[in-house]
Specification:
The structure holds two protein chains of two kinds. Chain A is an all-alpha fold. Chain A is about 70% helix and about 0% strand. The chains are: A mainly alpha, B mainly alpha. Chain A: InterPro entries: ATPase_csu/dsu_sf, ATPase_V0-cplx_csu/dsu, ATPase_V0-cplx_dsu, V-type_ATPase_csu/dsu, V-type_ATPase_csu/dsu_dom_3.
Chain lengths: ~350, ~300
């Protein structure tokens, strides 16, 4: 039943995205990339892929950042196109996707405002995926009060600010804490949206992905905050209330209160899917070639994304595609970086699932 | 190096000679001291060159790891973290450079030391959501890189300063060795030769004076002799005339005989005296030559 009317509104988008998905680099293409000796070779290899159009007009000397920028431009182009073709629920869903990037952009501008940086320079650094019309107006505000009252209030993110932050917080709190509180609110809101408004297969997949995202953040926050003087209350504020870890009030509280790495590892390992995370990851050991926590997360996320394509008539394919593409850009950047810096022993640390 | 050009413009007197000798001695002492200084500095210089080489190699490695750890950060955080890092910097520097001075053979070399305040960490929160561990690791690696840079900076500064000082010292050593000492020596020999020249001139002058004197004396003697002879002659003539008178008067008496005898005796005495005087003069001339010979010996 759920697939019956799906194609009326979203058939084109799904077809488009699945078409895009086929252009994602495969393992063999990655292997070819890792064989390259120079960035020129990389360009040549990528010339045989979808990226040929964006890379062919590079006249300057190649650099990792240049390649990364070009690839990102393509991603943004595709996302903009998808978004312009979407309607109703899908549009809303895509808006939600953007919110995550918007949070980053807004915080960038807020921190720039605090430190009196050149506004136009900050705008250049914003992530284009998180671009929204009122973003430039954020830069006009010179102090935080006016920033909040005149600009933030009109952005789609105002609700997150409203529910968790007061104007005073903007002044005293560390920008990173604000970022994570906002992100928590965002994830919860997104999860709500996915659960209640998306049609059946989409909501299941998206819930899974969002919950994992929430867990990822919880684990990261609790590990990375070990050495900081954040109080348990502060940490609790940042941990999302969803996900396998934090939906359980008991575990969540423990996550926030445990102060040494070993106990934290025991706690996280007690959750089924994260059982192996510390066996595989060597985040706390000195083994340089081992997988890091991030690698584990990225890999798990990519598996989820790949799985998302197995279902038809879902919005989650768009999410999965955009995320896969992001990972692909990260992979290519990583390989370029390894080649440019002549650190070939780590070149195989990329994550490829297709 | 023509002798006249390469010496100081001085009056060749014994006093300047003394001054010049003092100057030469001072130059030689200064030369050996400077030479020693230059050697000490060169030793240090070589040491530093070696250490710079080591430090640069180390820096190459450290910088590479550092750059790579940054790549890891951008992979893990998936974006541009530079801005977050820039903005979270507080006013308390975690990494401070302390400078002190070291004295090497009178040259002050600045020495930089890294001073890390472990309690200050501005980036604790950075990457809280993701990539925090990579951020911390990159921070540590870069701290090490900066430490290496600080080491290298102090070596490099010392290198430049020492290089300058060694150049200056060597220039001085060479100047003393090749200009000042030869010139002073030239001046000394010039003064010596001038003094000898003066001596010889003086001696020759003295000799000339003596010669003139002798000629004058000889002339005076000859005149005196002539006068004497003339006087004698006159006396003789007078005696002769007296004799003639007496002989004429002989006939006049026996007493006259005795008078004739007396005058003849007187005549012989006068002739004897004049012969002795001539001999004396010859003797004087001989002794004068002897004095001249001994004087020559003294001079040469």
């Amino acid at each position: 039943m759920e697939g019956l009317f799906f194609n009326i509104d979203n058939g084109y988008i799904e077809g488009l995205v699945r078409g895009y998905k086929n252009t994602l680099l495969t393992s063999s293409q990655y292997v070819n990339l890792t064989q390259c000796d120079t960035l020129e070779d990389i360009k040549l290899q990528l010339g045989a892929t979808e990226y040929s159009s964006v890379l062919s007009d590079i006249n300057e000397t190649l650099s990792t950042s240049l390649i990364e920028r070009k690839l990102n431009n393509k991603l943004i182009e595709e996302f903009t196109y998808i978004k312009s073709q979407s309607n109703s629920t899908l549009t809303k869903f895509l808006e939600f996707m953007k919110y995550g990037y918007m949070i980053d952009n807004i915080l960038l501008i807020i921190s720039g405002t605090i430190h009196n940086r050149d506004k136009s320079e900050i705008l250049k650094k914003c992530n284009a995926l998180g671009w929204f019309e009122t973003l430039p107006t954020l830069t006009i505000a010179t102090d935080l009060t006016s920033l909040y009252e005149t600009v933030l209030i009109d952005t789609p993110l105002a609700k997150y600010f409203q529910s968790c932050l007061s104007i005073d917080d903007l002044d005293d709190l560390n920008i990173e804490i604000i970022r994570n509180i906002l992100y928590k609110e965002y994830l919860e809101d997104f999860n709500n949206f996915a659960k209640n408004e998306l049609p059946t297969p989409s909501n299941e997949i998206m819930e899974r992905i969002i919950n994992f995202e929430a867990d990822k953040r919880s684990i990261n926050i609790s590990i990375n905050s070990l050495d900081t003087e954040l109080s348990t209350e502060d940490k609790l504020k940042m941990l999302p209330n969803i996900g396998l870890l934090s939906s359980n009030e008991n575990i969540k509280h423990q996550l926030a209160s445990i102060t040494d790495l070993e106990n934290l590892q025991v706690l996280i390992s007690s959750i089924g899917i994260y059982k192996d995370i510390f066996n595989e990851s060597t985040a706390n050991s000195n083994d340089e070639n081992g997988k890091s926590l991030e690698d584990f997360f990225y890999e798990y996320e990519m598996r989820l994304n790949k799985d998302a394509f197995t279902q038809q008539f879902t919005f989650s394919t768009v999410w999965a595609y955009i995320k896969s593409k992001e990972q692909e850009i990260r992979n290519i950047t990583w390989i370029c970086e390894c080649i440019a810096q002549n650190q070939r022993d780590k070149i195989n640390n990329y994550i490829s699932v297709y | 190096m023509s002798g006249a050009a390469n010496r100081e413009q001085v009056f060749p007197t014994r006093m300047t000679l003394g001054v010049m000798k003092g100057k030469l001695k001072g130059a030689q002492t200064g030369h050996s001291l400077l030479k020693r200084k230059s050697e000490a500095l060169t030793k240090r210089f070589r040491d530093i060159t070696k250490r710079i080489d080591d430090a640069k190699r180390k820096m190459g490695r450290v910088m590479q790891t550092a750059a790579f750890s940054l790549a890891e950060v951008s992979y893990a955080t998936g974006g541009n973290i530079g801005f977050q890092v820039q903005e979270s910097i507080s006013n308390n520097a975690r990494f401070k450079v302390k400078a002190r001075q070291e004295n090497v053979s009178g040259v002050y070399l600045p020495q930089f030391e890294a001073d890390i305040n472990e309690s200050i960490n501005d980036f604790k929160m950075t990457g809280l959501g993701r990539g925090g561990q990579q951020v911390q690791r990159a921070r540590e690696v870069y701290s090490k890189a900066v430490e290496t840079l600080v080491d290298l900076a102090s070596l490099q500064t010392a290198f430049v300063i020492l290089d300058d000082v060694i150049k200056v010292t060597n220039r001085r050593v060479n100047a003393i060795e090749h200009v000042i000492i030869p010139r002073t020596e030239n001046t000394i020999s010039y003064i010596n030769s001038e003094l000898d020249e003066l001596d010889r001139e003086e001696f020759y002058r003295l000799k000339k004076v003596q010669e003139k004197k002798q000629i004058a004396v000889a002339a005076a003697d000859a005149e005196a002799k002539a006068k004497k002879l003339k006087a004698e002659k006159e006396r003789l003539e007078a005696l002769e005339s007296k004799k003639a008178q007496l002989e004429a008067a002989k006939e006049n008496g026996e007493n006259v005989k005795e008078e004739i005898k007396e005058t003849e005796e007187a005549k012989a005495g006068v002739v004897e005296e004049s012969v002795v005087e001539e001999e004396k003069e010859e003797e004087e001339e001989q002794s004068g030559d002897l004095v001249a010979q001994t004087e020559d010996d003294v001079i040469f």
